[in-house]
Design brief:
The complex is a heterodimer of chains A (427) and B (146). Chain A is α+β, with helices and mostly antiparallel strands and 427 residues long. Chain A is built from nine helices and 21 strands. A four-stranded antiparallel β-sheet of chain A has the order 2-5-9-8, with no helix packed on it. A three-stranded antiparallel β-sheet of chain A has the order 1-6-7, with no helix packed on it. The two termini of chain A are 35 Å apart. Chain B is mainly beta and 146 residues long. Chain B has one domain. Helices cover 5% and strands 46% of the residues of chain B. Chain B is globular and about 60 Å long. Classes of the chains: A alpha+beta (427), B mainly beta (146). Chains A and B meet through strand 1 and strand 2 of A and strand 3 and strand 4 of B.
Chain lengths: 427, 146
Amino acid sequence: MIQVYRDYVYSANEISGQILGLSEISYAIKPDWTPELPEVTITTTIDDFAPGEKIVVAQRSDTTKQVVFYVKEIKYDYATQKYTLVCPHILEKLAYIKAMDIPAPLYGDSFGDWSDVTPTGSSGYTLYNNQGYDPKQGNYIWERKYYQAIFLIKMMIHRVTGTGVNSISSSTLESKDSFYAKRWEYYGVQEQIYTYGELGVNIGQMQACGTSYWNQNTNPDYFVRAGLMDCLTLLKHLLCALKIYIDIFRSDYKMDVIAFSSAPSNAATLGRTDEILERYRRYGVRRSGLDADPDWVWGYYDDVGMAWVFYTWGVDNPDREILESVAEEEDTGVDEAKQISVIFPNLFRIHNIYINTNNYYRSCVQVIKDTIDDKRDWDMWLAAFYAFWQPKTSKYTFETALTALEGKYPAARINVEDLKMRYERIT
Amino acid sequence: MILVPEIRDPMLRYNNTNYTLVNAVTDYAPDAVQGEVTESVIDGTVSMIYKGKRLEGEITVYGLTLANYEAYKAMERQTARLWPLGAGTIPNTNPQKYYPYTDVFIVSVTPFHKNNALYQDACIIKFKSVSYYTLARANDYGCSDQ
């Protein structure tokens, strides 16, 4: 049994008895890992709602289990004298807030002046805004762990919901290691230990958030020119990159890692015969550092078109396969003809597949290099990320023709993540 | 005596002429509620979207003359004034009260045969009060030429 409240859960605010219609509430993680927030349509006789007001749908037995919407649109039908309220989830309000509007202090600033945030200790929170362009993140940084990104997420939630930052639960994430590094600066000596790749945040997106202190950021035009995104997009990207979700059905907006199920075995997943896909051959690929059996995908090399053609599910055997297919696109900008660039879809995971024409070796996946100035950091960063993703993706993968063909191959770009999703759906 | 001391023949006034409907049979729905009973999908609370009350009903008139019939027929889809319980003063009221009346929209005037098969000697007048109206004693007679 649920209850509906105006503004917040309080007995005098209950409006359950005047709710004549409440549409379905859905909260989804889309195939690209970004969350999709619910939106409900409420029919009511209450005539004094104002746009922007909060509506809380709570569980009667435990009102901390709740989901908060806001009134975005009010429709009044005079014939029936009913009001129809279009209510997106409260976090959708972030779409109207530019990232620069989320306040943040610099290192050493007092938190009390700008929010109700009083984080315990100095680790992480106070440093969240102190970042430069590169992964070094400025000069005064130690042991960031998840804090930087998590804190930014908390600030965004706080901005639109009013929930105190300390009330937003992230305890399950705070034990995770940093995506970037653990860094210490001690008497001017920096030590860098890159440990783990689970957390990844697009620094380019984060850097402009809350940094109006910077000269180049004080002019609002700067953000227009820079195409600074709104906070909702930023939030989605952060969640997508971190592979976490916000439990919008709890009052503490608990954040947690999206659960991964164990990968299905190759045999179970791809146990098909060549008869079904007669036009295609099955090719194996192995990732560097792995000695497991190769994973498989169907495809062929079009000699005339000089392009890889991978089997797109549903085209040849629509009754057998999945709804989605992934378009292959040729990347003519790749200089090295023997490379196939695979762009992992989430922000910055960029790997190459190196095709090895030597029959004794398999092609492998390697990180892209020389893409930014600080090559060492980039490599370490990417390597850490790869270390995290490699075991998760190896059971699903894509593949190339590898040793079977000769000549120069145009580079092809495959959406590995989508392929992975496809395989997941087969099981 | 609740509203009126006695129920009299109803009276219609149209185009400055009063028509007392002698021996008419009335079928009124006084205070007919206009609105929708609602029910919350959350906890089942019943409530109502209330718009108002109105007087509606039928009056069956017998023993028509052709002149009367044509007079009533002319009221179709027009607004007339109706004294549903008859017209007059209510004695022993201070200040003086009168039989209730309201303006009604004549929906239809339907003739039918009663006693004489050769012509139509009766009709049914269907009406609705023009505005929301609750049956109550009036403060005036309702027309000047009583």
